[in-house]
Amino acid sequence: MAIRVHIPTPLRQYTEGQETVEVQGTTVAEVLRALGEQYPGITERLFDGEKIRRFVNVYVNDEDIRYLQNLDTPVKDGDEVSIIPAVAGGSR
């Protein structure tokens, strides 16, 4: 199954500058694992051990995986996975 993964600008240095990458998988975990196998530097930016880092949000077709089945969320051919780093900050 070809899943399109959207890579945010800060992480494109790990995907040779590509903003989208196609990988195979049937769950979000498999997709992110395949992404890490293809582009090893990205894995440590996404994961803290076995869990997605606290400030990294992952969406499948615009649905936050935290409200679905997290890493076990199923994906199918043609689905899109978006990696969105949380933005922190504010005024002083």
Q: Give the averaged pLDDT, no decimals.
A: 93
Overall body shape? globular
Low-confidence region ranges: none
Task: Please name the CATH topology.
Answer: Ubiquitin-like (UB roll)
CATH class: Alpha Beta
Biggest sheet, strands in spatial order? 2-1-7-5-6
Tell me roughly what share of residues is in helical segments. 10-25%
List the total number of helices.
2
- Indicate the structural class: alpha+beta
Main beta sheet: strand number and arrangement? 5 strands, mixed
DSSP strand count: 7
CA-atom Rg in angstroms: 13 Å
The CATH architecture classification is Roll
Our measurement of the CA-to-CA distance between the termini, rounded to an integer number of angstroms, reads 47 Å
Give the DSSP E fraction (strand runs of 2 or more residues). Answer: 25-35%
- At the fourth level of CATH, the homologous superfamily is Beta-grasp domain
Order of helices and strands: EEHHEEEEE
Q: Give the total of domains.
A: 1
What can you see in these coordinates?
- The chain is an alpha+beta fold.
- It is built from 2 helices and 7 strands; from the N terminus they run E-E-H-H-E-E-E-E-E.
- It has one domain (2-85): Ubiquitin-like (UB roll), CATH 3.10.20.30.
- 16% of the residues lie in helices and 29% in strands.
- A 5-stranded mixed beta sheet has the order 2-1-7-5-6, with helices on one face. A two-stranded antiparallel sheet has the order 3-4.
